[in-house]
User: Which sequence fits this backbone?
């Protein structure tokens, strides 16, 4: 994800890293945060991250570390309130 000025002169990489951004969850323009879902280590695991719109903080994980597995989120439009539904996958692939 990038923050690009209207004239295209300023480009800030907000999600620098070796992972895909799955979706944008919320944009808190007042406090300058972009909230997004990413799967940095395992495509089956979804985590909530945030980055500052000015690029000063990138890829800060919001999902608690103990919530390894698959997570779904409901957020207020401004990102101030988050409900996390956590599901731990116990299956093992042996093929």
Assistant:
């Amino acid at each position: 994800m990038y923050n690009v000025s209207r004239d295209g002169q300023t480009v800030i990489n907000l999600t620098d890293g070796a992972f895909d951004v799955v979706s944008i969850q919320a944009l808190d323009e007042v406090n300058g945060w972009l909230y997004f879902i990413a799967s940095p280590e395992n495509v089956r695991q979804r985590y909530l991250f945030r980055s500052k719109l000015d690029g000063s903080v990138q890829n800060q994980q919001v999902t608690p570390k103990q919530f390894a597995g698959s997570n779904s989120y409901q957020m207020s439009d401004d990102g101030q309130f988050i409900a996390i539904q956590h599901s731990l996958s116990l299956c093992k692939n042996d093929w």
Summary: Strands lie at 2-4, 11-13, 21-28, 33-38, 47-52, 60-61, 70-75, 82-87. Residues 2-87 form one domain. Residues 1 and 15 are 6 Å apart (CA to CA).
